[in-house]
Description:
Blueprint: H1 2-16, E1 19-27, E2 33-43, E3 46-56, H2 62-75
Antiparallel strand pairs: 1-2, 2-3
Amino acid sequence: MAKMIVNEISNEVREAGEFAIIADESKDCRKTEQLSVVLRYLLHDSVYESFVGFVPTSDLISDRVSSQILCQLERLGLDYRLW
Length: 83
Protein backbone atom coordinates (compact mmCIF):
# COMPACT_ATOMS: atom_id res chain seq x y z
CA MET A 1 0.00 0.00 0.00
CA ALA A 2 2.80 2.43 0.89
CA LYS A 3 4.47 1.75 -2.45
CA MET A 4 1.25 2.62 -4.28
CA ILE A 5 0.97 5.92 -2.39
CA VAL A 6 4.60 6.86 -3.08
CA ASN A 7 4.08 6.00 -6.77
CA GLU A 8 1.05 8.29 -6.87
CA ILE A 9 3.06 11.09 -5.25
CA SER A 10 5.84 10.56 -7.81
CA ASN A 11 3.29 10.79 -10.64
CA GLU A 12 1.92 14.03 -9.22
CA VAL A 13 5.41 15.51 -8.90
CA ARG A 14 6.21 14.58 -12.51
CA GLU A 15 2.94 16.23 -13.58
CA ALA A 16 3.82 19.37 -11.59
CA GLY A 17 7.20 19.52 -13.32
CA GLU A 18 9.07 21.36 -10.58
CA PHE A 19 9.61 20.45 -6.97
CA ALA A 20 11.63 21.24 -3.87
CA ILE A 21 13.26 18.75 -1.54
CA ILE A 22 12.95 18.99 2.22
CA ALA A 23 15.26 16.63 4.11
CA ASP A 24 16.04 16.42 7.80
CA GLU A 25 18.02 14.03 9.95
CA SER A 26 16.40 12.10 12.73
CA LYS A 27 17.22 9.04 14.79
CA ASP A 28 14.90 6.10 15.17
CA CYS A 29 14.30 4.27 18.45
CA ARG A 30 17.54 2.28 17.94
CA LYS A 31 19.50 5.55 17.55
CA THR A 32 20.08 4.83 13.83
CA GLU A 33 20.56 8.00 11.81
CA GLN A 34 18.14 8.48 8.94
CA LEU A 35 16.98 11.22 6.61
CA SER A 36 13.32 11.98 6.21
CA VAL A 37 12.60 13.13 2.65
CA VAL A 38 9.63 15.31 1.72
CA LEU A 39 8.78 16.72 -1.70
CA ARG A 40 7.06 20.08 -2.06
CA TYR A 41 5.30 20.88 -5.33
CA LEU A 42 2.53 22.97 -6.86
CA LEU A 43 -0.25 21.09 -8.64
CA HIS A 44 -3.60 22.52 -9.79
CA ASP A 45 -3.06 25.75 -7.83
CA SER A 46 -2.44 23.88 -4.56
CA VAL A 47 0.86 23.40 -2.73
CA TYR A 48 1.61 19.88 -1.49
CA GLU A 49 4.26 18.60 0.90
CA SER A 50 4.42 14.83 0.69
CA PHE A 51 6.61 12.49 2.71
CA VAL A 52 8.28 9.96 0.41
CA GLY A 53 10.40 7.96 2.81
CA PHE A 54 13.23 7.53 5.23
CA VAL A 55 16.75 7.05 3.91
CA PRO A 56 19.20 5.33 6.27
CA THR A 57 22.50 7.17 6.59
CA SER A 58 25.74 6.32 8.31
CA ASP A 59 26.87 9.91 8.77
CA LEU A 60 25.92 13.47 7.91
CA ILE A 61 28.81 14.43 5.62
CA SER A 62 27.30 16.69 2.95
CA ASP A 63 28.57 14.69 -0.04
CA ARG A 64 27.03 11.47 1.26
CA VAL A 65 23.77 13.10 2.30
CA SER A 66 23.28 14.74 -1.10
CA SER A 67 24.20 11.47 -2.84
CA GLN A 68 21.61 9.58 -0.79
CA ILE A 69 18.92 12.16 -1.56
CA LEU A 70 19.70 11.95 -5.28
CA CYS A 71 19.52 8.14 -5.13
CA GLN A 72 16.09 8.43 -3.51
CA LEU A 73 14.92 10.74 -6.30
CA GLU A 74 16.20 8.29 -8.91
CA ARG A 75 14.34 5.43 -7.19
CA LEU A 76 11.20 7.55 -7.45
CA GLY A 77 11.87 8.16 -11.14
CA LEU A 78 12.13 11.94 -10.71
CA ASP A 79 14.39 14.06 -12.88
CA TYR A 80 16.25 16.48 -10.65
CA ARG A 81 18.52 17.91 -13.35
CA LEU A 82 17.88 21.39 -14.68
CA TRP A 83 17.41 21.89 -18.39
